[in-house]
Amino acid sequence: AFCEHMTVIARSKEQADELARKGIELVGAAEPVRTTRGGVINFHYYIEEVETANSALHDFDYIFLMVKQPAITQELINKLKSQMSKDTYLISFQNGIGHEVRLGEELGRECLLFAVTTEGARRESLTAVTHTGHGVTYIGNRGDSNHFVNSTHILFVKMLEKAGFQTMMSKNMDVRIWSKLTINAVINPLTAILRVKNGDLLLSAWTRSLMNSLYQETRMVATAKGIILPDELWDTLLSVCEATSLNHSSMLQDIEHSRRTEIDHINGSLVKMANELNLQIPTHQTVYQLVKALE
Ligand SMILES: NC(=O)C1=CN([C@@H]2O[C@H](COP(=O)(O)OP(=O)(O)OC[C@H]3O[C@@H](n4cnc5c(N)ncnc54)[C@H](OP(=O)(O)O)[C@@H]3O)[C@@H](O)[C@H]2O)C=CC1
Ligand SMILES: CC(C)(CO)C(=O)C(=O)O
């Protein structure tokens, strides 16, 4: 990226040391790319030794929170709090729903921005990552859009653009979060349960019918929550399946690698909301239980 200083916080000391030695390698790029820009990127690590090892971290303008929802532990939230000044913004990149309420309660809504992205990335090793697909990233806050007057955000978006990420500020983040939630709540559990690629869901009338039930049930919950989803969302969902037809969805990959999935924050959140609203969403309930059983 084109910023003065960047700190990457890795999971372990081993990873941070490897990154400091080798830089980040972008696999599959036209030309070999390694981010070893001396003095610009620092690599730190999280966990046990964190308090002493990283005690110098502070004064970030923006923190990109790019972990899966189950990784947002209380410990991580406390750590984030300790690294934020009154001028720091935290940008939360998670799929699903639930994190926005929790982070808002813990960190305060005024310092929070949300990102919904269709960029694709996959970590290949401790230091290598593949950019699996170009997309668009929308960034904004939820509810009222006052923060958008902030000119620093405009510069920040320009910086992301310059680094090759198509980025836009959005005043409509609730709808964007819910639209992405709908797409993930349909494609992810079905591909994980059936162990098929995204495009395979389109090949059978049975899977299409399951997709449509999940879709209609999500719309029902969204409407009850006051979220007006776009009319064309079903067509968008089918296009995403086509455009990513050869992909293993992130949930299928998690199941294939025996990792915890984000099901609790995707279909699980919808089931919880439906229960609170006294709505029946049996297809979500069933896929939720099946993915939990697979986990
Ligand atoms: N990948 C993609 O293409 C897209 C992802 N998203 C969303 O973005 C979020 C992140 O996804 P993704 O990048 O794929 O997830 P990954 O799990 O692949 O990557 C997250 C990384 O964060 C590390 N990590 C977890 N906890 C900590 C911590 N406390 N300190 C430091 N590092 C930590 C993990 O380390 P370790 O592996 O060692 O646990 C892992 O390497 C998810 O909510 C996903 O749904 C949205 C759109 C596209
Ligand atoms: C849109 C989709 C389903 C693409 O694979 C995705 O976001 C995921 O795998 O989590």
SSE blueprint:
Layout: E1 6-10, H1 13-22, E2 25-27, E3 33-34, E4 41-45, H2 50-53, E5 62-65, H3 74-82, E6 89-92, H4 99-107, E7 112-117, E8 120-123, E9 128-133, E10 136-140, H5 151-162, E11 166-169, H6 173-194, H7 205-224, H8 233-243, H9 250-256, H10 267-277, H11 282-294
Parallel strand pairs: 1-4, 2-9, 5-6, 6-7, 10-11
Antiparallel strand pairs: 2-3, 7-10, 8-9
Helix pairs in contact: 6-7, 6-8, 6-9, 6-11, 10-11
NADPH dihydro-nicotinamide-adenine-dinucleotide phosphate is lined by residues 9-11, 46, 66-69, 71, 76, 93-95, 117, 120-121, 123, 250, 262.
Summarize the structure in words:
By secondary structure, the protein is an alpha/beta fold. The chain folds into two domains: 6-171, Rossmann fold (3-Layer(aba) Sandwich), CATH 3.40.50.720; 175-294, N-(1-d-carboxylethyl)-l-norvaline Dehydrogenase, domain 2 (Orthogonal Bundle). Helix content is 43%, strand content 16%. α6 crosses α8 (233-243) and α10 packs across α11. The radius of gyration is 20 Å and the shape is globular. It binds NADPH dihydro-nicotinamide-adenine-dinucleotide phosphate and ketopantoate (KPL). Ketopantoate binds next to α6.
